[in-house]
Amino acid sequence: MTTPNDTTTTTLQIDIVSDVMCPWCVIGYKQLATALEATRTPHEIRWHPFELNPNMPPTGQNITEHVAEKYGATPEQSRASRLHMTQAGADVGFEFAYTDDMRMHNTFNTHQLLHWAAQHNRMHELKMALFTAHFTHGRNLSDDAVLADVAAEIGLDRAQAAAVLSDQRFAQDVRDAEQFWIGQGIQSVPAVVFNHRHLVSGAQGVDNFTRILEQLAALQAKETQEATDVQQAQQAQ
Fold this sequence. Notes:
By secondary structure, the chain is of the alpha+beta class. The chain has 9 helices and 6 strands, in the order βαββααβαααααββα.
C-alpha cells in the first residue's frame, strides 16, 4: 500500500477512505478515536473520498428500497441492521436517528466540499458535521444549499462553499483521488491505512483497534532501534 507524499515521522499517519453515507465509517472512526485516546497515540488523520453509490440520482433513494435493491435485504432485515448500527453508534457516542423514510444521497458534491475544507484545515470538522447532518438529523446532503449551510455552521464561509459546489472546481481532484484509492485495491469502506502501508478494513471495534495501535507502536519502536543500531555501526567503522 502506497499513499501520496509518504513521510517518515514518529506521528502515526492515518489515511481513512470513506463516504458520509456509510454508517460503519463513522462507527469505525469513533472506535478508532477511542483507541487513539486510550493509547495516547500521536497521530494525524487524513480523509479520502469514496462513493458507495456513484450512480445515485440527485433525488436520492429511500433507504429501505436502496438496501433491498443493493443487498437483497427484506424490510425486517433492514430494520434489524439499523438497530444494530444504532447500538454500535451509541456505544461510541454517536447518535443514529433512522426512520423508514430516510434517504440515501449522492455524495460527489460532499467530497468536493470536503476537499475545499481541507484547504482551510477544516476537513475533519466538516466530515463529522456531515455524518451528523445525515445520520442524526436526516438532512438532505444531495441539496447544495444544505451542504453550504453545514459548512457555515462549522465556521466556513457559506458563499465560498456555495461557489465551490456551483462551479465544480474540485470535481477532477475528487475523481482523481477516488481512482487512486480504487487503484490501491480499495473496494469497500471504511478502509484505514496506517503509516502508508498497513491496511485495516471495516469497523474493528475499540479493543481490536487498541491492539492494532499497540502492535504498530511496538513495530515502530523496533524499526527505530534497528535504524539507530545501523547508524551507530556505520559511525564506528
